[in-house]
Design brief:
The structure is a homodimer. Chain A has 13 helices and 24 strands. The first copy, chain A, is an alpha/beta fold and about 425 residues long.
Chain lengths: ~425, ~425
């Protein structure tokens, strides 16, 4: 190792970490080590399509190594970091290895939060990883299989009720997609399951779904979901989730398919760093994306609670993480004046609801329906990494749009059946 | 249920069971229930390509339901049959359900046999299901990741030794493909792993690999594997497998990647039927594919040990299973004279070794190299179920042939890392 070179460690290969690492490519003064506990960068905005079997894992994920194949000064390591020794400037992985740094970029994102009810996780998995997506997919398919052979109507209905908790983008996308696949794609294959037997519920604690959007768009999304047969419950706080289903006030829904899309919190590593965090466990950073105590440690993306230089709260979305990654890297590279704070540039916001249906807000303009969906499709294909993934995803979408046939309805036996009962 | 109709139960949705079920499509006198413990028919001859990340699970598997979507008299059930009550003519599933039959077709295939050493399975998984394939794929990728970060040469080499036990078609295909993906596709992504560090071993107890083929072809396959960098050991009987690797006489190979392709045995259900079985646990059937005691129970495919009407031992391969399935169904349908025994029609045999390399024997003619590989490719694409799968697989192969780039090198976290050490 060249001692004159500075070592930068980036923890997390999501949108933020990956963008940060790219800034250092080919630089002769910095060695970068990008550490992730998986071996792939995940295009998380399309993860719900893997969960609903519209896409396969390889379509939306790229091995991080491939991205940096020809970059000599960027090393990719698969390891899970559990400790940061700020004094000696090194981080420790579960592999037993230590990695030393001059600069550290923390980009570990968030994980599901069950608001103090960790026992709910078993019955209501969340959607963060490819593994989560494949588990949810198998649960849904397995439930339809059970319903097909069950003749007693009471236990049978439990298999045909699908409950999604949380009306943010992920919850809305899942509700729309599950309604589509179970009613259209799935139904023809099952001889005893009728479309009217399937009920999809979307449960939101606040008074609107997609509540970061203007009321007009949020309300349009709610109506579209209703048209698609999704029962949307607003102002409804879930009180209990167990193997029988969910309870929320007077509402009780028996279900073997509950999916959690209601809350996120910072990863455990963030707590261990010993910095101030907000209620969701994200680290409070200043406009330089650092804390005042440790200017060599940057925190970016969902891991950070940040008010930017213009006083704007930075949202927890991919474009923000990428902008933060770029800013942090450029600061380390000395390409940003020390007093220039990070400023988030809002390029717009979009969410999809179903086949041919979406909402979008770009530069104050509002889009709904098919136009918004086309916009959404193009933007998502454009930002996918790799020509091959783009081509495959586009082909899948066109096929699905024309035929309504999803592709991979396979239960490979990932989840033990006993777990699902 | 119409009491006048006869109930046929088919256990197993592989090549034999699926072909048998198809014969009954649209028949007004028979109701068929096809029961499988998974929800998909698997094109097993290409399973090694899923294990080596050349294809994805959806490319080689089809939901059994889709196959019979429009066949009213064929019901598909996902259940695992554990008991057959021959007296009352019904079968019992793990779901607690019973299914009654007038005719039963047993097509449950085989599973790995570790020749009395079940403890080897943990360290040397076999390849029968999509789950197995994905586990093997993750083990291989995970090992390369470990080697990349390990600096001590002794533990490091263990991650770079790949051992395949058994020189039949599956073993040969796996050895060839693993050599290709680790040396060509994989290597560019890893900065610390050199091609010369990777060793692939194929261990065969007998004196030839692919020993059902003529010596000329078998020897040609061995040479091709050698050229591809696979170390082929003949006359070598494995004596022990543990977390450190394998031992066979004086040969000791430290390896965290041992794959079992050496032996098969009948599924446990076959033992429970109470019929005579051979040493491999397959049921001995007569030329009618039944036992003399229970003429309403047919046993087909790999589950049967059968000498056909012409005195030929029926091989355990897909075309034989399909022919047996067709024969059994036609007998039940009364389309075969009672005294006409099953005769296996040998349509040829082929095995692939690597990109552009295969051997084939068709009607006494021998093929090697690229010609054999083209033949192999066309036959396998032709027999895949569904236009979509055919198109996808062909596209993948052309892409791979031209670019040498495998597609999905993702570790989704299926296997607990502790398991792999």
């Amino acid at each position: 190792m060249d001692l004159k070179k500075k070592n930068v460690i980036i923890i997390g290969g999501g949108f933020g970490g990956l963008t940060a690492a790219k800034q250092f490519a080919g630089n002769k003064e910095f060695n970068v080590t990008l550490i992730d506990k998986t071996n792939h960068h995940l295009f998380q905005p399309l993860l719900y399509q893997v969960a609903t079997a519209a896409l396969s894992p390889g379509d939306i994920a790229t091995p991080i190594r491939s991205v940096f194949r020809n970059k000599k000064n960027i090393r990719v390591v698969m390891d899970e970091i559990t400790e940061v020794d700020k004094e000696n400037r090194n981080v420790h992985g579960t592999s037993g290895k230590h990695y030393s740094y001059d600069y550290l970029i923390v980009a570990t994102g968030t994980r599901h939060s069950y608001f103090g009810n960790p026992e709910w996780e078993r019955h209501a998995p969340g959607l963060k990883t490819l593994n989560d997506a494949l588990d949810i997919r198998e649960r849904v398919l397995w439930s339809l299989e059970q319903a097909e052979k069950e003749t007693d109507p009471t236990p049978r209905q439990k298999f045909l009720n699908f409950v999604i908790i949380g009306g943010g983008p992920t919850g809305v996308e899942l509700a729309g997609a599950i309604s589509e696949i179970t009613r259209k794609t799935g139904i023809n294959d099952f001889k005893n399951v009728r479309e009217k037997d399937i009920h999809v519920y979307l449960i939101e604690a606040q008074d609107a779904i997609l509540n970061t959007y203007p009321e007009e768009l949020s309300e349009s999304a709610r109506k579209k979901l209703n048209d698609m047969g999704v029962n949307v419950y607003l102002n409804t706080m879930v009180e209990n989730i167990n193997e029988d289903g969910i309870t929320a006030g007077k509402l009780t829904i028996p279900s073997s398919n509950v999916i959690w899309a209601a809350g996120n919190e910072g990863t455990p590593l963030l707590q261990k760093l010993g910095f101030d965090t907000d209620r969701a466990g994200r680290i409070n950073v200043n406009g330089s994306l650092t804390t005042h105590r440790q200017p060599e440690i940057y925190v970016i993306g969902d891991a950070a609670n940040c008010t930017d230089g213009s006083g704007q709260q930075v949202p927890g979305i991919a474009p923000a993480a990428m902008q933060m990654g770029k800013y942090a890297a450029k600061r380390i590279l000395g390409k940003v004046p020390p007093d220039k704070e990070f400023t988030y540039l809002d390029k717009g916001n979009m969410a999809t609801i179903g086949r041919g249906k979406a909402i979008a807000e770009i530069a104050g303009l509002k889009f709904k329906g098919f136009t918004a969906w086309l916009l959404w499709s193009f933007v998502h294909i454009f930002f996918l990494i790799g020509f091959r993934n783009r081509f495959r995803v586009m082909a899948e979408w066109i096929w699905y749009y024309l035929t309504f046939k999803g592709s991979f309805r396979l239960i490979t036996g990932r989840v033990d059946n006993n777990d699902k009962q």
